[in-house]
Write a structure and sequence with these properties.
The complex is a heterodimer of chains A (335) and B (216).
Chain A (H helix, E strand, L loop, with lengths): L11 E11 L5 E11 L3 E5 L6 H6 L9 E6 L2 E2 L5 H7 E5 L10 H5 L1 H5 L4 H14 L16 H13 L5 E5 L7 H16 L4 E6 L2 H7 L2 E6 L2 E6 L1 H6 L4 H7 L3 H8 L2 H4 L21 H10 L5 E5 L2 E6 L1 H19 L1
Parallel strand pairs in A: 3-8, 3-9, 6-7, 7-8
Antiparallel strand pairs in A: 1-2, 1-4, 4-5, 9-10, 11-12
Chain B lengths: L3 H10 L1 H32 L4 H16 L2 H12 L3 H25 L3 H9 L4 H35 L8 H9 L3 H27 L10
The chains are: A alpha/beta (335), B mainly alpha (216).
The structure holds adenosine-5'-diphosphate and magnesium ion.
């Protein structure tokens, strides 16, 4: 690569600048989209089927070429990379998983290290490491994909994408084909895994709850246009327009509770009840849990306790405070 | 009336001839088969991404297959003389359709998700072909080769009429002499050859992990 990335600090790992994609048949799948994902962050792309999520994602690893505009990875335009080299340093997970049926799990996971020329020993160690990371028993390494459950197969899919230590991961509805319980389990595990990795992720989903849960930032797409790109809490507080609002769903307020920690809204410690005010909260609990406790408690104010000392108090006023910004926005929209 | 006992007696009495003709028969058919595989599998691989060319080639080999061997063989004699050479040329042409068609179709039908994943992970077209598409297409290609094998064993019989060796000699002689034992005896050996070869080739597919034998 001819590029000299001197400005490591600014590091937008992925950047879209005025990107439009018109397919050969005239379909305009993506229209003038601009956004960027900082190094180590997860951006979720969410929107109804056909809104251009997959197309947007595939422009990052050169599976789709933008018609106009520029997509950059590590501050270098995708068009300046050798596509094969680029794809090898960008992990890729798809909904259909696409494990190679004639290869063992070990061979599947090790395929990218193998084609880039790692030694057998190094590949073997890496596979062991990855199977552990995605919580698969080491026994599976000699099995074939069809012998595994859907959830296990997708774990292998994730391990395969992580094999050559990519800086960027693209995940296209990775958990979409799984049953709700397995999906939730994999979401939680993946959040754990990702916390221990320094990897920038673009995560495509049509499920808004998944988008809010997995993303540091959420990009809402509609008919190829980027309608809003914000952190989950901000998106819930201030949906840009009626589409985003309806897409967030009727239980938006409940979802919003999930995104705020007690610490952010609690009142002073001296307002906490001195008698036994029900189960105390921790400042790191979500407001959703807080509401649950608050509904169950016998007093109107619940103490917030950290390391054995009361550090704050939580009442209805504090919980409601998170909706204030939003109600203001609605008033502004309706005048 | 034909009696099986007499047929078996004839086979016993003429076992040396039958063995010699079987070897000739196999050598002609298998030589053509090997040439056919070497020629048509790579051709199928080469044209896999070019719909127009592959349609033309498959169309042409389909037409070849409709020409009766009794008509095709004498057509080749002016170019290749008499004996084994024209027979092998004809057989190679006949093997084109099953082998090439199954190669093209087998590669084209590789699971889309596997192709997508392979490309997304950074496999080159060639790596995708060698590591993913050909292994996945292997049972389909083998099914084509098995079809071709049975076809070539059968057609080789006719080649005896134009000077090539093989079990066709006994069959045509049996017809000339109105010797039913001879016709049936040689035919039994012929069928046995076809069945054994077909079974053997199917086994090579079964030995591979996760490959199912595709019945034709
Ligand atoms: N290869 C293609 N050729 C033509 N149109 C396409 C192609 N891929 C996707 N499209 C169209 O582009 C639009 C966006 O598709 P896609 O990016 O797959 O959306 P999503 O992933 O959000 O469901 C759709 O209208 C789809 O039909
Ligand atoms: Mg999609």
């Amino acid at each position: 690569m001819s590029h000299d990335t001197a400005t490591e600090t600014a590091s937008n790992s992925i950047a879209f600048e005025n990107v439009t994609k018109v397919y050969d048949d005239g379909t305009e799948a993506v229209t003038d989209v601009s956004f960027s994902v900082s190094s180590g962050e997860t951006a979720t792309l969410v929107g109804p089927s056909g809104c251009g999520k997959t197309t947007t994602m595939k422009m990052v690893n050169a599976l789709v070429e933008p018609t106009t505009g520029t997509v950059s990875v590590d501050e270098t335009p995708v068009s300046e990379y050798d596509p094969i080299e680029l794809r090898r340093k960008v992990g890729y997970v798809i909904q259909d998983i696409g494990l190679f049926k004639h290869m063992t799990i070990e061979e599947n996971v090790g395929i990218v290290p193998d084609i880039v020329g790692w030694s057998d020993d190094r590949i073997e160690n890496r596979v062991t490491e990855l199977l552990e990371l995605v919580r698969l028993d080491d026994d599976v390494r000699t099995k074939y994909p069809q012998e595994l459950s859907g959830g296990q197969q997708q774990r292998v899919g994730v391990a395969r994408a992580l094999a050559a230590e990519p800086e960027v991961m693209l995940m296209d509805e990775p958990f979409g084909a799984l049953d709700p319980i397995t999906r939730e389990q994999l979401q939680n595990e993946f959040l754990d895994i990702q916390a221990g990795l320094d990897v920038t992720i673009v995560f495509v989903t049509h499920d808004i709850d998944e988008a809010l849960k997995m993303g540091d930032k959420v990009a809402v797409l509609q008919d190829g246009e980027l309608i809003q790109y914000d952190p989950p809490a901000e998106l819930l507080r201030n949906p840009n327009n009626a589409f985003v609002e309806s897409f967030l769903g009727e239980d938006r307020q409940l979802a919003q509770l999930q995104t705020v920690a007690v610490r952010e809204v609690m009142g002073p410690a001296n307002e906490a009840p001195t008698n036994d005010g029900g189960t105390p909260l921790s400042p790191d609990d979500t407001l959703r849990l807080a509401v649950q406790n608050w509904l169950r408690s016998e007093t109107d104010v619940v103490p917030v306790v950290e390391d054995g000392t009361v550090v704050g108090s939580l009442s209805e006023v504090h919980i409601r405070s998170i909706f204030d910004g939003r109600s203001r926005a609605i008033e502004e929209n309706h005048v | 009336m034909v009696s099986l006992v007499e047929t078996v007696e004839w086979m016993g009495a003429n076992s040396d001839v039958l063995v010699r003709q079987s070897i000739q028969h196999l050598s002609i058919a298998l030589t053509a088969l090997v040439i056919g595989i070497v020629l048509w599998v790579p051709t199928g691989v080469l044209v896999r991404n070019n719909e127009r060319v592959s349609q033309v080639l498959l169309g042409a080999s389909g037409i070849v297959l409709t020409i009766p061997s009794l008509a095709l063989l004498p057509l080749l004699i002016p170019f290749f003389g008499i004996g084994e050479a024209p027979a092998i040329v004809a057989l190679v042409l006949y093997s084109a359709l099953p082998i090439m068609r199954n190669t093209v179709v087998g590669i084209a039908e590789t699971d889309g998700a596997m192709k997508e994943a392979g490309r997304g992970l950074g496999l080159t077209d060639r790596q995708l072909l060698v590591r993913v598409q050909l292994p996945m297409a292997y049972p389909v290609i083998m099914a084509g080769i098995r079809q071709a094998t049975v076809l070539l064993i059968a057609i080789t019989t006719v080649a005896a009429y134009f000077g090539a060796g093989g079990l066709g000699r006994s069959i045509f002689a049996g017809i000339r002499l109105a010797n039913a034992d001879q016709i049936i005896g040689a035919t039994i050996v012929l069928s046995a050859l076809a069945i054994v070869l077909d079974y053997g080739l199917a086994t090579t597919v079964r030995l591979l992990p996760n490959s199912e034998v595709i019945d034709t």
